Amino acid sequence: MDRPKIELKLPVIANMELVAVQTAEVVAKHMDLSEDKAAEISMALIEACINAFEHSQAQNNVFIHFILEENSLVIKVIDQGIGFDKAKVEIPAIENKLGTDERKRGWGLQLIQELMDSVEFESGKDGTTVTMTKNKEV
Amino acid sequence: MSQFKVNTEFENDIVILITEGYLNQEGGQMIANICLNNIDNGITKILLDLGQTKVVNSIGVSILIEIIEKLQGVEGKLGYFNLAPIVDKTFNIMGLTKYSSVYPNREDALANF
Question: What is the ipTM of this complex?
Answer without folding.
Answer: 0.94
